[in-house]
Amino acid sequence: MQRTLTTYDQTRRALESGSTTCERTVEGYLESINTGKRLNAFLAVFGEKVLDEARAVDRKIAEGTAGPLAGMVVAVKDVICMRDEKVTCASKILENFVSLYDATVIERLRAADAVFIGKTNMDEFAMGSSTENSAFGAVLNPVDESRVPGGSSGGSCVAVAGGMAHTALGTDTGGSIRQPAAFCGIVGLKPTYGRVSRYGLVALSSSFDQIGPFAACVADAARVLHVMSGQDVNDSTSAAVPVPDYTAALTGNVAGLKVGVPWTVLGKGLQPEIRASVDRAVQRLREGGAHIEEIELPHSDYVISTYYILMTAEASSNLARYDGARYGYRSTTARNLSELYVQSRSEGFGQETKRRIMLGTYVLSAGYYDAYYRKAQKVRRMIQQDFFNAFENVDCVLTPTTPTTAFKFGEKTEDPLEMYLSDIFTVSANLAGLPGISVPFGKDGQGLPVGIQFVGRQFEESTILNAAYYLEQQEGR
Ligand code: GLN
Q1: Which atom of ligand 1 is nearest to the CA of 176?
Q2: Fewer CB within a 10 Å sphere, N or C end of the chain?
Q3: Looking at the 3D structure of the chain, how many domains does it have?
Q4: Is the pTM for the entire model greater than 0.90?
Q5: Is residue 322 a contact partner of residue 347, using CB atoms and an 8 Å limit?
Q6: What range does the domain containing 334 cover?
Q7: Which atom of ligand 1 is the closest one to the Cα of 423?
Q8: How far apart are CA 73 and CA 30, in angstroms?
């Protein structure tokens, strides 16, 4: 069962009043990491190092020079580089690979006086929806340990949902922040493509990947986003768009907000209790003065196939660099160069990663490029256009985050297509480069959390944060 989570806002007040210290806060979280070990959320825990960081922050608080995230305890998905720490991507192929530098997001959070408690477990190379694809064992959902926490950022999500960190960094290529957030009952935000620097993020699918926060409440997510956003000279895809004050946007006022709901899309295969949560969310928004409009997303039948063609294509190309020669794992039995490549990759990569490398290589191959890759690029554009058309009339789009609540271990591992279908509501935002947020809203008959998703216009994170904040307030948190 889940306990009540401490938000960063609460800790910050306690730090300001002197009733706690950053060091004690960190000690508390280290303790819960220890008692929650069976959840397998962490691949590395920075015991002494994070305590040193905490003491340094305490000194700054005493001097009155502490930054905007002073004392925030952050867990980091093990696909984001931290200097002198391993970055394994939960893969055998990078098991002992140590990063030489900090990702930009790490630098920015550190400069704001956040402290880092450890690296979290995930699906290998962020491929998956359940965190069952980790080379280092699956992660358990703290709400019901017989169920998956979602993926691929399962460890980061459980770090927050299990009370082992205030916030955590995840990555979202097709839903990997929002879907686990929904499954574990916390907030997860995927920023607009280009909002947050990807420098120091190990690439999965470069035109989709974004780093974003998990948090116990919308306000905490807004704070982290504010610090991590903005252009970065080290990432040419990071956008030169000013970063607004996301916290100031949390008014809880939705009067006049136009919310689009693609009702026809919601008809298919939706768990009835999730549909009930959608209806209730719509009702609450109406009561707050929002206008609910029906919208059409005519190409939504193609989102899963388009996503899985393009993401595997990009992944197969990005993962070509793990060749046994330059990085990480090298087979010891190879007798020549070609065997070195084949054996290192065969022994180093897990099953799902291999499946995607093969699919991606296939859709990029000379004979099939036009039929698959090029066509999918065109459909991607049409899916994006559907959203742009909708945004002429509405300010954001509401859907559930997932078609079902958290499923059981092993339930979908035999059938990759079934697994891929759990991404049906999340992948469109990545295809279209739009921001999306999942906020917990209601539970199913078994007490499992339901997530509501808002998708916004590019760089309008403020709108979806405030809509999510409104629903959060309605839940009486
Ligand atoms: N579940 C999706 C996939 O397996 C999303 C992954 C992600 O966002 N990293 O591709």
Answers
A1: 8
A2: N
A3: 1
A4: yes
A5: no
A6: 1-477
A7: 1
A8: 10
